[in-house]
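User: Hello, beginner here. Can you help me understand these amino acid letters and fold codes? It all follows right here:
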Amino acid sequence: MIPFNVPVLTGLESSALSNAIAQGRFSGDGPIARRCEQKLADQLGVRRALLVPSCTHALEMAALLLDLEEGDEVILPSFTFVSTANAFALRRARLVFVDIDPRTMNIEPESVQKALSPRTKAIVVVHYAGVGCDMDAIMDIAHDAGVPVIEDAAQCIGAGYRGKPLGAFGAIGCFSFHETKNIHCGEGGAIVFNDPVLAERAEILREKGTNRSNFLRGQVDKYTWVSIGSSYLPSELNAAFLEPQLDAVSNITMRRLAIWRRYREALAQLPGIQIPDPPSECAHNAHLFWVKAPNEGARDRWIAELRQAGVSAPFHYVPLHGTDPGREFGRFHGEDRYTTREASRLLRLPLHLNLSDADIDAVIAAVKGLSG
């Protein structure tokens, strides 16, 4: 079986972990973590980046930093991972799901515009597959409405929109370093900011509500409890594993793009199948390569046929507005023209750096052999 994902390794993780162990400093916010944070901030062109245990934690921190109250509304796509919604539902915000653009599977700006209300406190965008949302339109809508944009950039390291890195547009960007992502540390994430006030509040929040970071920088002579907070710090071992991967982002992205392009070139003229066609302004990172069948029945049949051919090709998100929690904590605004239909047609092909040329050829051959 050709696996859907194999976590990437640069070959330097073992020595990085050994060096971290030899230093004898294992808890969070150590020198290795701070190096990673600076490297990430430099890559993204943002003022501040903070490592966290997961993108889920980054999203939860974003929701806390928004000071949401019960009944406040947050606009987001229904086609996303549950963490995007959970973070805001936990704060008792009302989730307002809106439709997507079938070309990119990203949130549709027109639907966002129509969903705005006096209760709207944030617009949450998800850059699916490392392909940027229409950030020109989204940022204009947010600016006119006076609400912040939160970027769920879980799949976006190494990707951009009109020359600017994804995750660096909104008030807050949230990244994932889970082992299914282009780079990883097993479980990990980051939250990034351009606003120094938000960044300072985030430091306090992730340090259990204390000003310990200021103390470590010598800005105060002792630290104490100053606000609500929790423990949102990954260990130095996570950071040590992540650092060589951060250094290799460009090379990893180029190698993934080469596989993505081979799929696209081979499958572009195949009848009865739809493949990605990212807008020209989006510099994607080849996080995944999706294929769409004519309908849900054909999609399920194709997944089974690919499995028989030795290829693991899973579907993706089940739209959140159709779930029991989605109905309890939110509602779909407007017409569901594309979300449910397009989600039910989509499956994903293997894309990772362990794929050999023979593996890629086998995947292409299996897709070409699918029944109509």
